[in-house]
Write a structure and sequence with these properties.
The chain is built from 27 helices and six strands. The protein has 564 residues and is mainly alpha-helical. The chain folds into two domains: 374 residues, Na+/H+ antiporter like fold; 115 residues, 3-Layer(aba) Sandwich (Rossmann fold), CATH 3.40.50. It has a six-stranded parallel sheet with strand order 3-2-1-4-5-6, sandwiched between helices.
């Protein structure tokens, strides 16, 4: 508990400082790990305890990432992911040969170092892409696909690389055994997931049992990760497979929304644990070797990754942006480096060099992403025939545009959806009742399963591009939370219409930035007035004037804080 508290407080403090200095927040987490690490004075956390928590972060990250995709999307990127990822690993491994004269390594050690640095950080890449809103762009999906291919290569590399120095007696047998295990895990995950997981989540995904749903999701994510780890495969790969299974179900969006808080907490601890491995004096003493290696890794990996994407016939813009995204050295690089150091095939003094390279490439990752558009403009001006035409825009985003988001498919939400549908106006429904969601999916209605008060669910519905947000759920707190989040999103065209429970709620909603508030009981009262006065012979034009005047007076009076 002490290690957890110390790591969390250090991560918070480091993140705040990095944010104030306009640095990537990841840098703050790593710096926090250095401060509480064993190589600096002051409070020290137990590295093994923090590392265990960090592994949970990797599992949650990969689970959420898998839930963002689906088997169909992976199949569509299969050739790009497999061919591009494997080409990138092979070519980047060859970079180690260029480091042999600089570091005085043998041929096999150079190959080992190249393979270690060829792996990219899944955590850093996904966090950087998500921060820029690029996870669902073409270059974002390509980068993720290549990361998956890299993860699949980790286990074979862990077997083959030590064999370069004779550390493994039967590498071919071990590799075949690993392949059989991987195939069994893939098939088992798919068969069990398609049938068991939707049924299980469907029986707990009912109102008032949110805690059971969360327990089921966490158990699925961590349980699958542990099973693959026990089978000798990557823990991250197992969590990703569990996410893919969830992505095929109707609970996809809600699962992502529930996992995000766990993911963010434990991923921060991952970077803290990485910082705890860094010995600042040793790192400074290696600056002469570190700087040229970092330059070679940044330029080499970006060019190789971009070339691997171009080979698959994708646009040059996609290739450049995906290549820049894949520069940061990965968390599995530490695993391979440590394995090599233990087996004697990787000099132990190079471990600090790998750490330093990883740290600097992680620091550079956000800046490389921002430099992408500038680099594309420079490339388009080069006097190379046809290059300007190849540096083209990504495929259009499939997210809806200028649509209505209907939160809650009750009586009012149903009427609104029917009215929009009859006029062919685009809309998306957010509903937390799984039975209603199933019904809407069968009818072909665009629907997202989840809680409308959860920012992740609203963002998934395309809040940044929506024209109308109609919050019609009966929960007063949920309505207010959804409205406040919507006003924080950069969408000046968004109009928010919300259902109010009572007079006090109307005032809170106005304070939250709601464009128009509707109070059902008051509106029902107006209709009663209309029918009664019509029975006494009041004409329709006069009735319309009376009703409109009463409505304006009521909402204006409530907004001004008058009345009861």
């Amino acid at each position: 508990m002490l290690d957890l508290v110390l790591a969390v407080i250090a991560a918070f403090a480091g993140g705040v400082v990095a944010q104030r200095l306009h640095l990537p927040i990841i840098v703050g987490y790593v710096a926090a790990g250095v401060v509480i690490g064993p190589f600096t004075p002051g409070p020290t956390a137990n590295a093994q305890s923090v590392n265990t928590l960090a592994e949970i972060g990797v599992a949650f990250l990969m689970f959420a990432l898998g839930a963002e995709f689906s088997f169909g999307e992976l199949r569509s990127l299969g050739r790009v992911s497999a061919l591009g990822g494997f080409l990138q690993i092979g070519a980047s491994t060859a970079l180690g040969l260029l480091m042999i004269p600089l570091l005085g390594l043998s041929f096999s050690q150079g190959i080992f170092l190249g393979a270690v640095l060829a792996l990219s950080s899944t955590i850093v890449v996904t966090r950087t892409l998500a921060a820029r809103g690029e996870l669902q762009t073409l270059h974002g999906r390509v980068a993720i696909g290549m990361l998956i291919a890299q993860d699949l290569c980790v286990v074979p590399l862990a077997i083959i690389l030590p064999a370069l120095t004779g550390s493994t007696i039967s590498p071919l047998y071990d590799l075949m055994l690993t392949a059989v295990k991987a195939l069994a895990v893939f098939l088992g995950s798919y068969v069990i997931g398609v049938r068991a997981v939707p049924w299980l989540l469907g029986h707990v995904a009912v109102p008032r049992t949110r805690e059971l749903f969360i327990l089921g999701v966490v158990g699925l994510a961590l349980g699958t990760a542990v099973v693959t780890a026990l089978a000798g495969l990557s823990l991250a790969l197992g969590a990703f497979l569990a996410g893919l299974v969830v992505a095929e179900s109707q609970f996809r969006t809600r699962v992502i929304a529930e996992v995000i808080p766990f993911r963010d907490l434990f991923v921060a601890l991952f970077f803290v644990s990485m910082g705890m491995l860094i010995d600042p004096p040793v790192l400074l003493s290696q600056a002469g070797s570190l700087i040229p290696i970092v330059a070679l890794v940044v330029v080499g990996k970006a060019v190789i990754a971009a070339g691997s994407v171009l080979v698959n016939g994708l646009p040059a813009r996609t290739a450049v942006l995906a290549g820049l995204s894949l520069v940061p050295v990965g968390e599995f690089s530490f695993v391979l480096a440590e394995l090599g150091a233990r087996s004697g095939s990787f000099p132990s003094e190079l471990f600090e060099l790998v750490l330093g390279t990883a740290l600097l490439t992680i620091i550079l990752a956000p800046f490389l992403g921002r430099a992408g558009p500038l680099l594309l403009r420079l490339l388009s001006r080069l006097p190379i025939e046809g290059l300007a035409d190849r540096v083209e825009a990504d495929l259009p985003d499939e997210s809806p545009r200028r649509h209505a988001i209907i939160c809650g498919y009750g009586r009012v939400g149903r009427e609104l959806a029917d009215a929009l549908g009859r006029r062919n106006l685009p809309y998306v429904v957010i509903e937390h009742n799984p039975f209603i969601v199933s019904e809407l999916r069968e009818r072909g209605v665009p629907v997202i399963y989840g809680d409308a008060s959860n920012p992740a669910v609203l963002d998934h519905a395309g809040l940044a591009y929506a024209r109308i947000l109609a919050i019609l759920v009966p929960d007063a707190d949920a309505v207010e939370l959804a409205a406040r989040h919507a006003r924080q999103v950069k969408n000046h065209r968004l109009a928010i219409i919300a259902r109010a429970v009572d007079v006090a709620h109307i005032r809170r909603l106005h304070a939250a930035g709601v464009s128009a508030v509707v109070q059902p009981e008051f509106e029902a009262g107006l209709e009663v007035i209309r029918h009664v006065l019509h029975s006494f012979g009041i004409t329709e034009p006069e009735l319309g004037h009376i009703i409109a005047g009463r409505r304006v007076a009521f909402y204006r009076q409530v907004a001004g804080g008058e009345g009861t």
